[in-house]
């Protein structure tokens, strides 16, 4: 049983003792100086702040209720009065320990006698041999003992020892009058005394003893002493700061690369911010457990720690931005889960660096790899290309701290490297589409919009109709060899560009100037082809910007890059074509014969020529290769179509066709002539009628002027 001074167990013992001792009359309390005791107080360190106690008291005489009992007398009455002697020994021990270990928590068991010392017969010396008592217990050293005001002093002392710190234990040893006391401290194997003052050290260094001899003294006697202990093999004994960086370049946001940095501070130089009490020596750099311990103990203020960590981060941030070579703004904060809110802040028997102190920082960079946007990089990867990332693109070798870095793609795949080896990674996607050939289609459509009689030629005796032609050359890009559009840097493997990636490159202005040049080149090729097809030189053609704009609209899904919807680069022109015709009243018809178009195959392009005629026109055709065909649109219009595949080589075909117009179309063609004839006839008729009316009108009377002479005759 463990008891304390003043607790209920002691009170019970006092009552029992008072009732059992009938021969002793109670008197005033006696002084401890009336006892003669040789004592050995032995303390064994279980850790830096908790000690086991083994007390041995050799009692030569002792005063109980103002009566001195020698050793022989104690033995004589011990069976009846043993409780009183044990209680007195307990009180003496508590009083002495309370003076030596002021403010400490002292627990002592009930004293027990050495039975062999009670079985000694009385002789001429009533005080020898002594009666021996043993008391076991323990002591928890408190902040008063160390001369400070720290609530968790036990954790602090043990944590410091486990981090290589040295702890000074200062004592004032006491011995009452007529007492001789040996204070013996047993040092465990994992600890060793660094320095001892006033005491003796055993040869093996595991026992330190102070002796206070006060035999014959009239009052208390004291002796000063101290010892400095350290751990022989502490868990952590850092000789320099240990800070590392975990850097993540996360492309999951797609629009930008998230840069996430976690600065792990495993050990930190706190010499400029720590305020050690006097009993601590020799700790400047501590592991993260130590920082948390010092925060809890009040040796470090949270503000000072924040300022120190801010300074560490600021130095690293400047270093990181310079190494990365990008203009990036990083916001940072201390990870409170590794400091004040840490679930396992420290283990005083194993003070290590886990979890390390943390500084969290994040920011976004739009163009991580050279000047290519994150969307463009991912577009290349998810359309079947590969990005070869090496030191020339991301160089972190000059960072001030060791690092672990990784690039994370949206599908979770990541690529890692560290300070020991430069990055050498190929960013790719296993399920991306793979292409071996390009796919381009060209559709040349010639719409015969209207047919009109050439009245001017008619006046000269020629019979021609003038057809208005809407000419359109559509160039559809499903996928194309990359070098046709742009020159990519050496670290990009991309042989074929699909339509989604082309749209993305146009959005991101990767292909801005190159696309303009490509369109201009296609415009020239289109002009040459159309001039050859319709046999007209100097044809003016224009880019259909609306069709191009519409074809550039897409779902924007970077992770699903395909060639399903082509990019449409269309050119158009409007021109006319004269054709001779023959006219028949019975049957009423107009026929155009022996007209032709030239069609050419284009290497590496699937090309389709389509000639579309007005509704109501009967079409017949043939060509030199026999590959033309006649089809009908949904509205009934006829068309002639001829196709060449990309592997046809340099071939051409002349398409000959004849057209027979329906009576209604013939009427419409001649309608202007008929109208003009009717108008002329009407005008001539009106003129004739006017002329006839002038001839049958009676003559008007002739007016003659009367002379003055004739006027006088009438008077």
Describe this structure in words.
- There is one protein chain.
- The chain folds into three domains: 2-141 and 161-224, no CATH class; 242-427; 439-664, no CATH class.
- It is built from 13 helices and 36 strands.
- The strands form six sheets. Strands 1, 2, 3, 4, 5, 6, 7, 9, 11 and 12 form a ten-stranded mixed sheet that branches. Strands 24, 25, 27, 28, 29, 32, 34 and 35 form an eight-stranded mixed sheet that branches.
- It has 715 residues and is of the alpha+beta class.
- The longest helix has 34 residues, at 663-696.
- The termini are far apart.
- A hairpin with a 5-residue loop joins strand 34 and strand 35.
- It is rod-shaped.
- Helix 1 runs antiparallel to helix 2 (71-100) and helix 4 packs antiparallel against helix 5.
Keywords:
36 strands; 715 residues; eight-stranded mixed sheet; ten-stranded mixed sheet; disordered N terminus; alpha+beta
Write the layout of secondary structure elements.
Blueprint: E1 2-3, H1 8-20, E2 36-45, E3 50-64, E4 67-70, H2 71-100, E5 105-109, E6 112-113, H3 115-118, E7 131-140, H4 153-162, E8 166-175, E9 179-186, E10 191-197, E11 200-201, E12 207-213, E13 221-231, E14 242-250, E15 257-269, E16 280-281, E17 285-287, H5 288-297, H6 302-324, E18 331-334, E19 357-365, H7 374-382, E20 386-389, E21 403-408, E22 414-418, E23 425-427, E24 439-453, H8 455-459, E25 464-481, E26 492-493, E27 496-498, H9 499-507, H10 512-534, E28 542-543, H11 545-551, E29 567-580, E30 582-584, E31 589-600, E32 606-612, E33 617-623, E34 629-632, E35 638-644, E36 652-661, H12 663-696, H13 708-713
Parallel strand pairs: 2-9, 14-21, 24-32
Antiparallel strand pairs: 1-5, 2-3, 3-4, 3-7, 5-7, 6-7, 8-13, 8-16, 9-12, 10-13, 11-12, 14-15, 15-17, 15-19, 18-19, 20-23, 20-26, 21-22, 24-25, 25-27, 25-29, 28-29, 30-31, 31-36, 32-35, 33-36, 34-35
């Amino acid at each position: 049983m463990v008891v304390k001074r003043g607790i209920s167990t002691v009170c019970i013992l006092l009552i029992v003792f008072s009732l059992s001792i009938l021969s002793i009359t109670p008197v005033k309390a006696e002084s401890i100086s009336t006892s003669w005791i040789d004592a050995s107080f032995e303390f064994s360190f279980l850790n830096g702040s908790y000690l086991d106690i083994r007390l041995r008291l050799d009692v030569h005489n002792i005063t109980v209720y103002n009566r001195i009992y020698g050793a022989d007398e104690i033995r004589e009455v011990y069976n009846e009065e043993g409780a009183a002697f044990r209680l007195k020994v307990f009180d003496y021990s508590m009083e002495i320990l309370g003076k030596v270990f002021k403010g400490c928590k002292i627990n002592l068991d009930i004293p027990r006698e050495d039975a062999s010392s009670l079985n000694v017969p009385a002789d001429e010396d009533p005080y020898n041999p002594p009666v021996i008592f043993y008391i076991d217990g323990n002591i928890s050293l408190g902040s008063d003992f160390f001369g400070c005001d720290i609530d968790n002093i036990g954790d602090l002392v043990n944590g410091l020892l486990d981090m290589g710190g040295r702890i000074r234990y200062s004592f004032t040893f006491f011995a009452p009058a007529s007492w001789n006391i040996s204070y013996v401290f047993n040092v465990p194997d994992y600890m060793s005394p660094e320095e001892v003052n006033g005491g003796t050290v055993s040869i093996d260094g595991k026992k330190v003893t102070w002796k206070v001899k006060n035999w014959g003294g009239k009052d208390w006697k004291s002796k000063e002493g101290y010892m400095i202990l350290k751990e022989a093999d502490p868990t952590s004994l850092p000789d320099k700061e240990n800070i590392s960086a975990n850097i993540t370049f996360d492309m999951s946001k797609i629009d930008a690369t998230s840069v996430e940095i976690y600065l792990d501070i495993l050990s930190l130089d706190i010499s400029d911010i720590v305020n050690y009490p006097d009993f601590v020596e020799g700790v400047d750099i501590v592991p993260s457990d130590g920082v948390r311990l010092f925060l809890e103990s009040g040796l470090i203020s949270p503000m000072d720690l924040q300022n120190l960590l801010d300074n560490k981060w600021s130095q690293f941030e400047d270093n990181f931005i310079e190494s990365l070579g990008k203009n990036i703004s990083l916001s940072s904060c201390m990870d409170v889960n590794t400091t004040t809110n840490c679930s396992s802040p420290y283990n005083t028997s194993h003070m290590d660096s886990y979890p390390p102190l943390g500084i969290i920082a994040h920011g976004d960079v739009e163009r991580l790899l050279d000047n290519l946007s994150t969307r463009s990089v991912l577009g290349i990867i998810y359309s079947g290309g590969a990005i070869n990332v090496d030191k020339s693109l991301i160089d972190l070798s000059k960072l001030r701290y060791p690092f672990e870095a990784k690039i994370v793609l949206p599908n979770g795949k990541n690529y890692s490297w560290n300070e020991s080896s430069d990055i050498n990674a190929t960013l790719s996607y296993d399920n991306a589409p793979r292409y071996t050939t390009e796919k381009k289609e060209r559709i040349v459509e010639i719409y015969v919009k209207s047919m009109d009689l050439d009245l001017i030629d008619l006046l000269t005796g020629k019979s021609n109709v003038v057809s208005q032609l809407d000419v359109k050359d559509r160039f559809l890009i499903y996928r194309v060899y990359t070098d046709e559009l742009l020159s990519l840097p050496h670290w990009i493997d991309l042989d074929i560009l699909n339509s989604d990636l082309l749209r993305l490159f146009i959005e991101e202005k990767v292909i801005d100037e190159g696309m303009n040049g490509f369109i201009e080149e296609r415009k020239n090729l289109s002009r040459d082809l159309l001039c050859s097809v319709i046999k007209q030189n100097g044809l003016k053609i224009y880019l259909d910007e609306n069709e191009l704009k519409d074809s550039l609209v897409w779902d924007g899904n970077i992770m699903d890059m395909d060639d399903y919807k082509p990019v449409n680069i269309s050119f158009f022109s409007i021109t006319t074509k004269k054709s001779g015709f023959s006219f028949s009243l019975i049957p009423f018809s107009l026929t155009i014969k022996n007209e032709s178009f030239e069609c050419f195959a284009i290497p590496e392009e699937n090309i389709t020529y389509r000639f579309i005629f007005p509704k109501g026109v009967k079409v017949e055709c043939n060509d030199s290769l026999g590959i033309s065909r006649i089809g009908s649109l949904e509205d009934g219009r006829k068309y002639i179509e001829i196709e060449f595949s990309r592997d046809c080589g340099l071939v051409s075909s002349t398409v000959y066709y004849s057209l027979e117009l329906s009576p209604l179309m013939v009427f419409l063609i001649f309608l202007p002539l008929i109208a003009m004839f009717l108008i002329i006839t009407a005008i001539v008729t009106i003129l004739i009628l006017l002329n006839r009316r002038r001839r049958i009108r009676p003559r008007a009377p002739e007016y003659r002027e009367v002379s003055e002479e004739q006027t006088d005759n009438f008077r």
